[in-house]
Amino acid sequence: MEAELEQQLSKIRVQATSKAPHQQQHAAMLLAVEETIKEQGAPAEPASYFAALLTLLEQQAGTGPNGLSGTIIYLLSIVLPGVSHLMLRAKFSTMMAVLSQSLDLGSADVALLRSVISCLETVLAAQDAGSWGLPISQGTFRSLLALSTDSKPKIRKRAQEAVSTLLARPPPPAVVHPAAQITARFVIDTLSTAKSDAQSALHILQLLKTTDMIWPSDEFGSLCEALMQLPKLNMPFVTTLSFQAIESVFSSATESLDEDQFRDLLIDIVDLKPNANDPLASEAWLKIIQKGYTAYALISPDACFQSLPDLIDLIIPDIELGKPSTREAATQCIWATIRECIPDAMLGSAGIGQVIKALASGLSYRYRESWALVFLLIAALFQRLSKFAHPSMDGILTEVANMRMESEFELKNEADAVLGAAVRAIGPQAFLEVLPLNLGGEPRKDQVGRAWLLPLMKSHIRNAPLEFFVDTMLPLADSLSAQGKLFVSKGRDIEAKVFSALSQQVWALLGGFFNVPADILQSFTPSFAQRLAMELLESPDLRPTICGALQTLLVAVHALANDDSGVGPLTKQQAIAAQTHLAQFAPDYLAQLFNVFAQSPGANRGYMVNTITAFLAVITSDDINATFARVCAMLDEALKTHKPPAAAEMTERYLEAHAPPNAHTMMDLAIIMTPYLDTEHSLMLVRAAHMLAKQNDDQILQKKGYKAFSRLAEQPAGSVAHQLIGSTMGAQLIPMLIESAESVAISSRRERLSLIASLSRNLADDQLHFIPAMLSEVILGTKEANERARSVAFDALLTMGKRMSQGGAINMAAVTGDVSIDDSDMPQQLANTEEFFKMIAAGLAAQTPHMISATIAAISRALFEFHSLLSMDFVVELLSTVLMFVVNNNREIAKSSLGFVKIIAIILPKEVLEPHLGEIVTSILKWSHEFKNKMRLKCRHILDRLVRRLGLDAVEKVMPEEHMKLLANMRKRQQRSKRGKEATAAGGQQQRAEGGATAQVEAAASASAKKTFGNAYEDVLYGSESELEDSDDEEPNTMATKSAAKGRGAKTDRKNGNAPASSAKVSGAWIKEDAEGPLDFLDRSAFTHFSTANPSAKERRAPVAPKMKGGKFVFEDPEEEARKAAAVAAMAAAAAAQAGGEADGEDYYLQSLTSKDAFYHTPGQKVKFPKRKAGDDDDDVEMASDGEDAQAAQLKPVPAKRGKDNSGNAVGREFRSKKAKGDVKRGNIDPFAYIPLNPKSMKKGAISVKGNSKKEKRARNMK
């Protein structure tokens, strides 16, 4: 029995105890059928189930809708897909008769009808072409068509799925389904009554939309005519669905219609163009046009091309007027027609001019809001026309370049994309003919410099003729360089730097010209090669550029020479010839590169290594071996006089400015040539590496020795280096590695670990003692400070584990290295995965916490990789052992142990993990209150994983009472997280419904932003801690503060004009003025001064530098300055009023600035009131009843305020400094106080400080 069927039946069997009656009935019926099959001794196959159920269904015929027919048909719908087609054909008549009766009887039962539809679909799909001609088959299919327009959604959906599936799979050998005629007639009849029965028309259009079939040719015209009449009914939903249905029908249009019929159909569709403001109908119409014209281009390419300009003129207004989704659909439609409807034979024809003219209209100002989409279409046209775009598109190219040069133009990146497409299409030579750089010679007034094109061209030149660079660009670079040197001689450094930079930018184009040019044999001449070699030696600034260009050329040519596909700018024969030509210059270039390599600082050699490797790939083996012999000879000479560099010479700053010792350089060159050496010279490298690996005085040389061994061991199996390492492994390499374990330098550990990993991969059975001998070093390597060294150590650990799992025997005498012990006296230890873990676990008995921690980390990594090869008893034993270290007081050990528990919580089965849950929880809770090293976070993370795997109730049972609050907090965080995810999902669905493709792109970007670590082990170990870091407990006031801050931020955004994304956009345009004068609207560049956004909103007040006063910065308060300015203006107004004889009148403006209720405006136009000083009289003044009272009030002396004399002047003002603003003035008098003391207050006992009076002192003494 098929596994899928058994899985479905098993789900039904367990429903015998369900509370739902219909589920109980299904399970009881299935169990009864299985019991009958078992009693009859029939096999438990789908055929047996089918026979039993069909017999029961025949017995239930005529029993009415309340019988067991529904249950039997439900089980039949599950069993029938597994029954053979031959049996279904044999029982076809019986099935149709019984199911048709059930169909009539159960017309009101949705579940029964869905089961009947499933059975009919399966039975009809099994019939051959002859059976489809029977009346019973056609009648049954008509019933399915009728149900596809049923008013009940579930029945209608299931019937439409069944019809679509049947029509998409015609019985062989038929191409058109036998029921296609019936379907077409039914659809036409239904659509003809759309005006009176729109609901049925909508349902049938939905069926057409989802059906992929070939329609009969005699009905296709009538079907299209019926669909074309629907948009004229002015029903929005019917119109949209009709367009979508026409799009689906077009899949068979090329087979069903001839050229004239297809053209007429397209003309009718074009005439039905909807309003651009109707996004649903417009997008559906544009998709039809795109699909229709693509198909029309296959039927009649020339006629389709002739109609393309008119089509672009018709669609391009939608890019301006439509909604955003309509604009994107219109752009996609034009882009597809440009790509598919322009035949290759018409690329250079005169008709292309009409297409270009239609598309150039999009550069007018009316399309300013959609220029980004227009630029995309222009770039696509450049790409399609390729070299034929010149000279027909020169005008568009010039216009885009002029737009790009305007300083206020906002779409510079989009314009750069168009210019880059033009460079790729027509080539740099034609491009510079249209847009010359104008850098050489004396510039004329009408010439515009276009130096900004150089960086743009650099990344877009492909397969261009090298001759143009040699004859045109190289002299330009020399001219610019000479001009820069002339400015240097005149002392004009700024101009010199500008021209030097321009010269380097011209040289930077060399990489693009070296990207597989077609004229390598003709243009890469000895003189040009010599010029490049000279620049390598004499121009350090140009070395990266030239080396990168040479590497691009060599790698591309070498790849094409070894490619048999024949796809590329050069054929295989041409690539081989070019590679041979370049190989002639390789020895001279290598010699030059070796000299430059030796003279360059160690930090700036990476690009040279890549270039040397590219030359080694094309040079002959004899030349490589001869070069290697010379390098080895120079290495021997250098080692004779070599002295280890001092510590100061190994710093990063020193290496950036000085070349390393000659011995280091020669060894680096020898390592680069490793993959290309023969046996003899590989043996020379092995001897040199063996000698340097034992070098203890110079750590760098020791590292390079191990690096040479590692590169030899990494070569592919079967190579000369791989065979040599295999032959010397047992006699030299393994003993050397074991003996030198104690003397290895820190900087050499990574290369040494890499060598250990490579050797462990190819160990023979008699060399397995190498694993236990090196295992402790590998374990310690997992705790290295260098990340790459740690990664290599883990790789070596896993490599050893894989080799141990392959089996073998370990010679323990060789491990101990005791030659006095006979091998026969030592037992042979079998190699397997459990033995490997025992070897690692031996490190738990170490004396240092560092080694214990490294051992636990190694066990965790190995267990994650090999847990499937271990028995559960052994894993449980490991768990019990490591749990003892979780409670260790050493944080380093405990941290590694918690990592082990994380791994255990993931890999162990639930039934194994549950018995040890209490022990695990009790152990890790020791660190639940420790914040250092994120121990508390790790503890919570483990608990979170345990809750996810075993459930909250299981963890709660073993949780100590004092830690129940932690569990309650975890429950709250889970509920909070669940609510947040549900809200995010609901918001995402709404956003996708409203925003379409943009929302999908944002969702994909947010999904891709989740943190991953690149490997499954690190994802498990560290992947979820960041989630818990953001989900710690938050106090209510903190949450309130965040909410308030969020609210303030939202209000600020609205205030500043940054409305939410969902708010309505304000349409309009602004003119940006400049200081050059009035804007000339007739100027072509006037469009760059128009903006769809308010320019004033983008303006920011320039920061004002603080003033200097007396050598100090003085920061002025804007409000204080505004107040002072208002006061000055008031005094000026008063003086002017007095001079003009208006003193007797009332000046309300002056009173608003100087009266008690005065106010002023700040620079931000806020109303402010002047601050009251301590001496100001703020009391209300009572009005006198008559003149005498007023006069008496004026003559009454006013008591002096505190800090002022009777005249109202501040006391001590004569001591105030004129410059220091408050400091005591030195020179005349040095007072001890600013305010003179009153003599009356100086009497004895008059001044009393609270708590120090005599009365208070006596009271304290009595107490």
From TrEMBL:
The record lists the lineage as:
Eukaryota, Fungi, Fungi incertae sedis, Zoopagomycota, Kickxellomycotina
Segment Disordered: which positions?
971-1000, 1025-1065, 1160-1263
Extent of Low complexity compositional bias: 983-1000
Provide the protein name: Pre-rRNA processing protein
Q: Where is the RRP12 HEAT domain?
A: 323-599
Biased-composition ranges, Acidic residues, are 1026-1036, 1176-1189
Source species, domain of life: Eukaryota
Q: Where is the composition biased (Basic and acidic residues)?
A: 1213-1228
Recorded family membership? Belongs to the RRP12 family.
Q: List localization entries.
A: Nucleus
Q: Which residues form the RRP12 N-terminal HEAT domain?
A: 17-254
Q: Name the source organism.
A: Coemansia spiralis
A Gene Ontology term for the protein's cellular component: nucleus
Q: Name one Pfam family in it.
A: RRP12_HEAT
Keywords on record: Nucleus
